[in-house]
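Quick one:
INPUT:
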């Protein structure tokens, strides 16, 4: 089985977010995909199989399969466009979240994702205790989005991950965001209930972060930075109920799995 390791949302290795990508002729047992994912121990391992009208794409974390992952989609698109579909300008991925459309735009890979909703919910003491700072606003969809006034608060916060995992109503993770000085917004993303304390760069949560800041700032294009230790950036274009994410990627390795 061929596997590629790609750093997504960056131009150089050792930055952005790592994803493993396995390009398959047919689907292996789900137990094997979970074993490979746990062996890699990245936040995501992506598995893809070519179909008549595109590629089927699935994402696994060490804690189980998830319904949407931006950085692993970017990594998979990078691998396919570089090694398997060199003449293609676009690829359609069939996923648990519906069809996702990726393409080339200069040096960028573009990804067309469904936007999340921003349903405001009350700020609670539990949120403050888990993140170590009280947010000004809170919004819930698949993820919980906590909004802060100051970039430094987001960059320096030290969450209590056991408490983060206990926050009610969270399906995947918790994002903290604030207005940026060099970017429109900065963020961090925590998903301890999926065995990922902090995800380095998260495309999918920007389907919630970007619409929030687009509305607040009166913009249709948001330049976003995720302020993890590795760091990564992306451009987010709001198009109705869709979010187009633009990012770059860097190849770290190509290997053959002995499974």
């Amino acid at each position: 089985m061929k596997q590629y390791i790609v750093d997504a949302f960056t131009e150089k290795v050792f930055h952005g977010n790592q994803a493993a990508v396995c390009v398959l002729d047919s689907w292996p047992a789900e137990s094997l995909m979970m074993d490979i994912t746990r062996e890699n121990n990245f936040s995501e391992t992506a598995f893809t199989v070519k179909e008549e009208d595109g590629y089927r794409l699935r994402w696994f974390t060490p804690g189980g399969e998830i319904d949407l992952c931006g950085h692993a989609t970017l990594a998979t698109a990078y691998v396919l466009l570089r090694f398997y579909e060199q003449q293609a300008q676009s690829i359609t991925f069939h996923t648990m979240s519906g069809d996702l459309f990726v393409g080339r735009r200069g040096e960028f890979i573009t990804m067309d994702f469904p936007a999340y909703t921003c349903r405001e919910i009350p700020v609670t003491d539990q949120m403050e205790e888990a993140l170590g700072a009280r947010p000004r606003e809170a919004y819930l969809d698949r993820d919980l989005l906590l909004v802060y006034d100051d970039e430094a608060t987001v960059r320096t916060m030290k969450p209590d991950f056991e408490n983060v995992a206990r926050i009610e109503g969270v399906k995947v993770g918790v994002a903290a965001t604030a207005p940026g000085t060099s970017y429109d917004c900065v963020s961090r993303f925590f998903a301890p209930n999926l065995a990922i304390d902090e995800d380095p760069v998260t495309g999918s949560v920007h389907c919630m972060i970007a619409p929030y800041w687009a509305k607040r700032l009166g913009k249709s294009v948001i330049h976003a930075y995720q302020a993890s230790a590795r760091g990564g950036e992306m451009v987010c274009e709001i198009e109705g109920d869709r979010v187009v994410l633009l990012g770059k990627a860097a190849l770290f390795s190509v290997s053959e799995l002995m499974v």
